[in-house]
Write a structure and sequence with these properties.
Layout lengths: L7 E5 L4 E5 L3 E6 L7 E3 L10 E6 L7 E4 L6 E6 L3 E8 L8 E20 L2 H4 L4 E5 L2 E6 L2 E8 L4 E4 L2 E9 L3 E10 L10 H16 L9 H13 L1 E2 L4 E2 L22 E2 L3 H10 L3 H15 L9 E2 L10 E2 L13 E2 L10 H15 L8 H15 L18 H20 L7 H18 L1 E2 L4 E2 L26 H13 L1 E2 L2 E2 L22 E2 H13 L3 H12 L11 E3 L4 E3 L5 H15 L6
Antiparallel strand pairs: 1-2, 2-3, 3-4, 3-5, 5-9, 6-7, 7-8, 8-9, 9-14, 9-15, 10-11, 11-12, 12-15, 13-14, 16-17, 18-19, 20-21, 22-23, 24-25, 26-27, 27-28
Helix pairs in contact: 3-13, 4-5, 4-6, 4-13, 5-6, 6-7, 6-8, 7-8, 8-9, 11-12, 11-13, 12-13
Length: about 600
Amino acid sequence: MHPHIEDYALIGDHQTAALVSNRGSIDWLCLPRFDSAACFAALLGDEENGHWRIAPRGADACTRRAYRHDTLVLDSEWETDEGTVRVTDLMPQRDRSPDVVRLVEGLDGRVTVRSTLRLRFDYGSVVPWMRRSDGHRVAVAGPDAVWLRSEPEVLTWSEGRATYAEFPVERGDKVALVLTWHPSHEPRPRLLDPYESLRSSLDDWRSWAGRCRYDGPYRDTVVRSLITLKALTYEPTGGIVAAATTSLPEEIGGVRNWDYRHCWLRDSTLTLGALLSCGYQEEAEAWRDWLLRAVAGDPADLQVMYGLAGERRIPENELPWLAGYEGSRPVRIGNDAVRQTQLDVYGEVIDSLALSRRSGLPTKPHMWRMQSALMEYLRSVWRKRDEGLWEVRGPRRHFTHSKVMAWVAADRAVRTLEMEPKLSGDLDGWRALREEIHHEVCERGFDADRNTFTQSYGSRELDASLLLIPVVGFLPPDDPRVVGTVDAINAELSHDGFVRRYSSDHRPAASSIDGLPGSEGAFLVCSFWLADALHLTGRTEEACELFERLVGLVNDVGLLAEEYDPVAGRQLGNFPQAFSHVGLVGTALALFDGDEAG
């Protein structure tokens, strides 16, 4: 049986990340980047698809685990009949090559520890050739090479296409095991000092966390979310991936399994706001600059997502040799949603750049010209149908949220010109466009009989994205249409405050909203949006109660996936999910901090 999604913790080095289960097994790791092929893929298959477990011989799940305070250094402890042992896992910030450091320490008694390493390159499909060199184990296949060493050296042996080690530890004994990847055509990288890497990692993370200016309730939870966002940042470019994984299911056994190891434009405004509000201007500027580079070019070619460095081609493929998490197939890499038309992203990009300007980030010479070009293109296409922010794979529609975000684009462009009249732009034309879009949305996207905005023009379906209408300023929070929409979503799309994106009630694919069979769990960022909307509409006590329930969903090390199944009581979807953690930070700021950015 797979561990539950919430049974995993994250370690990373700002260029990739690994998932470590509470059984002491690294079941997911892509090297050298977040979007590279995995060398451990047991998460989406079984142990034969690659994993590395270190635990007391014969033990199952650890007794307890936790991150060292304000860091991404993970401690897992097992209490056994023979004694107690701790395994500390980290990925130090790399000099050149990525390293996984696993430190075993005896705390009490005498415990025999067992290491089982199965390297499987190319998402679990390639078994490497393993040999010895200078007392180390070396695995090579095609472009990949991995070295395993220990300090002090322990006996290793190969059996059944795996590499094993067993060694006893007593109180005070320490054994370090280090896994290092490099391109197979290059020489072995220099050896790092595992204990010095632990000290420097602790110092680096605590120094970074110490910059957080938020000091309200749930501070530790907010800081953990910020650390998670930092861990999902590809440091060389500043891009932030949506999650560290691909194909963790939105429905156990279902087909809603997508690759989230890419950077989505729509995450930009909320992520920028969270980073700026908490004092992380450097990270916010790096994300803003990644955004500027990614969207550069013809406005008609704007995509909804890009690669870590702004790559535009992210072809979607299926990996038939992987059985999927708990049988959830297919396993996909890449994402065909990159080819969709989603008009809301123009609003998100222009809103992000306006926020960065208002918040004092240094401007770029071409930034306003790019915004103006995006606005002019949007003026010509905003009336078209699109796939919407949820990337439906059914027919295109006039999604209300897409039109609202077109209004946001015009509104932010107008406000920027009003604040900085020296900039050039069609102020009168954009004002007229803003008014035109607003009138159409209120006329065609609102159901007067039910007093609620709807998912698309002429539809009776609701959509959680409509909760953003007061957040983005389209209508004031006390407008009866806003209050009615919040009430309708709370009544029809939520289960004790856990909000689904839209209705997906096991209809056949041909008649479903998104063109897919099956259902999904509650979308966590939407639940945070409901808390925000309740707060804005004067129901702050309800908002705080909902926020407390949502915070209660974080796993034992403070992480959230994309979705939650309130019936089964477990997390669903890719993990950890940046958008969920952005939502947590944003709602905490809205409820408990009056100085949030934007």
